[in-house]
Design a protein that fits this description.
The complex is a heterodimer of chains A (182) and B (146).
Chain A lengths: L1 H14 L5 E14 L4 E14 L4 E7 L4 E2 L2 H11 L7 E8 L11 E13 L2 E14 L2 E10 L20 E11 L2
Antiparallel strand pairs in A: 1-2, 1-9, 2-3, 2-4, 3-5, 5-6, 6-7, 7-8, 8-9
Chain B lengths: L1 H21 L14 E3 H10 L1 H8 L3 E12 L7 E5 L5 E7 L4 H6 L5 E12 L10 E10 L2
Parallel strand pairs in B: 1-2, 4-6
Antiparallel strand pairs in B: 2-3, 2-5, 3-4, 5-6
Helix pairs in contact in B: 2-3
């Protein structure tokens, strides 16, 4: 009986890929808009995100007002005119790491995975799919991805007068250091 | 001649105002009077019970908050943070600081009472996202008052 117990334990140890939930409240999300007239970028350092290493479920919650711009006026326009962030305070993502079983969270290394799910900005939800890297380093995991979104897909209207200053292809960068939470 | 001069001055004035507006500085937290001061529990309750109203009233305003430090979170070197107790296991106030404030935060101990001033940004976390069910009221550009 004890032997069976040990065998089960050994089997568990070999198949255990460092499951459980990985989390952070200090992830970075930034965006970058390039046109010939102006480059605009902003960053948020308090992104709440977590993933379940067993099921692959991954989620993000980002406070729109917490994006910091170099110029205060741009930040004001972003919040008041484009994002209406008092009315729509959060952007969220609810998705899956599709091939999570290919990531061995107990072995250091760089893994590539496809992340797919629903991105909600300004009350509009769209499917998004992006290739991400997960860097496992002694139990912590850095998740990183870049993808492009078009503001018009999320009801973000850009007035004609500034249309040459704001790109229709905004590059979003996600960079989060997760730690094992339980 | 006089007319041309007036037009020229008007153009210069508009240009100067435009330039000033374009380059207007971010809110100086240190120099701005707090709109309202809260205990950590009060601030959390205001946002938890009525996010829309709380956003309209306090978002992007300088507020004061005092509470007990639950945790120091230096997980992001670009913005050191402290977390104040507010509502048991699932409600906190998360205060973000400029990196140059970190030396002051290092002296603070978990369990200590602090008073913080900063820009209120809203409430983050979501009951619909089960992995992110612990909720924070978020403040940025904070400074330690005492």
């Amino acid at each position: 009986m004890i032997l069976v117990g040990f065998a089960a334990l050994a089997l568990f140890a070999f198949t255990n890929h460092g499951g459980g939930v990985y989390k952070t409240n200090t992830g970075n999300v930034s965006f970058f808009s390039h046109t010939n007239v102006e480059d605009i970028s902003a960053i948020n350092h308090k992104v709440k995100t977590a993933f379940d290493a067993s099921s692959g479920k991954i989620q993000f919650s980002v406070l729109v007002k917490d994006f910091e711009f170099a110029k205060a006026l741009m930040q004001e326009h972003f919040n008041e005119n484009y994002m209406e962030s008092t009315k729509f305070p959060k952007a969220t993502f609810n998705g899956m790491i599709e091939n999570v079983e290919a990531i061995d969270f107990s072995t250091n290394g760089n893994y590539t995975a496809n992340v797919m799910g629903e991105l909600t900005i300004k009350g509009v939800t769209k499917e998004v799919s992006t290739t991400s890297t997960f860097k496992v380093n002694n139990g912590t995991v850095n998740g990183m991805t870049k993808f492009i979104l078009n503001p018009e897909d999320y009801n973000i209207e850009i007035p004609k007068v500034v249309s040459n200053k704001i790109s229709r292809e905004i590059e979003i960068t996600v960079d989060a250091d997760y730690t094992h939470s339980h | 001649m006089k007319k041309t001069l007036i037009i020229l001055i008007a153009i210069l004035a508009v240009g100067f105002i435009g330039y000033k507006m374009y380059n207007k500085p971010h809110t100086d937290v240190q120099a701005t009077e707090v709109l309202k001061s809260f205990s950590a529990e009060e601030l959390f309750t205001v946002f938890d019970l009525g996010e829309a109203q709380a956003m309209a009233q306090f978002a992007d305003q300088v507020i004061g908050v005092n509470g007990v430090v639950y945790q120091k979170d230096f997980g992001n070197e670009l913005e050191p943070q402290i977390v104040l107790e507010a509502n048991g296991d699932n409600g906190y106030i998360r205060c973000g600081f400029k990196p140059e404030e970190k030396s002051k935060l290092e002296k603070i101990k978990e369990g200590q009472s602090v008073k913080v001033k900063g820009l209120c940004k809203g409430i983050n976390g979501s009951e619909e996202l089960d992995l992110l069910a612990d909720i924070d009221v978020v403040m940025s550009n904070c400074i330690i008052i005492e």
